[in-house]
């Protein structure tokens, strides 16, 4: 059973998700402090935020201690650092060898090592879905469009492949069309993967006039879920639309939806479906 906490320190990376989480924690009366990571998050997007580099873990801990925080949430897009350019403070220097060692074993190992650092300081690590539960994907569809039989088969194929690469700590997404795997996600991220699909010959993928293929995102089976749950938003729908895809699929409880109403409207405008499957992870 998770320990209770009362005041949150938010470490914000890029994207819209940190803003949603900060707003949810503030509405709940539990937001203590926000640290915007330099080069990834804009501190101006938050009501009040300090700005710290990735290598300033000691300073981040002091910010949260001063704000009376007993919990931390690490959320948003952060690229793997170039450790030679990190400019670490003394706290970061002390834990850097094990962080670097973990980084060689994959993203999930790296995230677990980072979590351990904050837990050793007595902070409870909370997931974005715990704080902003309204963002968690619920079973069903967003919008009126539904997948046909071929699209459902592609959706299940893409979910399966995303699970396979996730078990090797590679990525969270895959695209399948007519049973053929068109792309899998690694370090480039979903937007870049969809751009690669859009550049493929139209004989392999759909078009805006004849949509085919499905993007699936799901957590890695090995994943530490308190950090880095898959996220879809309007930009994901737009990228899938440009790639000629018929729709998107994510597992219920295994993804965060940024603005469900806006996602539904965007999907409807392009004629895409957004399917949220039953179960924690979808088909394995």
From TrEMBL:
Q: What is this protein called?
A: DUF1009 domain-containing protein
Domain (LpxI C-terminal): give its ranges: 139-275
Entry's Gene3D superfamilies?
3.40.140.80, 3.40.50.20
Coiled-coil blocks: none
Q: Which Pfam families match?
A: LpxI_C, LpxI_N
Entry-linked InterPro entries: LpxI, LpxI_C, LpxI_C_sf, LpxI_N
Q: Which residues form the LpxI N-terminal domain?
A: 7-135
Give the organism the record lists.
Answer: Alkalicaulis satelles
């Amino acid at each position: 059973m998770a320990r209770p906490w009362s005041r949150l320190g938010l470490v914000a990376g890029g994207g819209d998700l940190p803003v949603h989480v900060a707003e949810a924690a503030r509405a709940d009366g539990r937001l203590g402090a926000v640290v915007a990571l330099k080069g990834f998050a804009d501190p101006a997007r938050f009501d009040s935020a300090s700005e710290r580099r990735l290598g300033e873990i000691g300073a981040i801990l002091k910010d949260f201690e001063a704000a009376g925080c007993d919990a931390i949430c690490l959320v948003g897009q952060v690229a793997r650092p170039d450790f030679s350019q990190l400019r670490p403070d003394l706290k970061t220097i002390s834990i850097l060898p094990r962080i670097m060692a973990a980084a060689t074993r994959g993203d999930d190992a790296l995230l677990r090592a980072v979590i351990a650092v904050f837990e050793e300081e007595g902070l409870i690590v909370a997931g974005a879905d715990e704080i902003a539960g309204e963002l968690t994907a619920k079973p069903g569809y967003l919008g009126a469009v539904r997948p046909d039989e071929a699209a459902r088969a592609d959706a299940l194929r893409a979910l399966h492949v995303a699970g396979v690469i996730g078990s090797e700590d590679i990525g969270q997404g895959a695209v399948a069309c007519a049973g053929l795997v068109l792309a899998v996600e690694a370090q480039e991220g979903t937007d870049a993967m969809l751009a690669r699909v859009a550049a493929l010959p139209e004989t392999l993928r759909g078009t805006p006039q004849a949509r085919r293929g499905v993007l699936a995102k799901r957590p890695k089976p090995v994943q530490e879920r308190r950090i880095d749950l898959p996220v879809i938003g309007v930009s994901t729908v737009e990228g899938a639309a440009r790639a000629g895809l018929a729709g998107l699929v994510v597992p219920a409880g295994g993804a965060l939806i940024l603005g469900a109403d806006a996602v539904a409207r965007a999907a409807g405008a392009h004629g895409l479906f957004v399917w949220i499957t039953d179960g924690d992870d979808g088909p394995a």
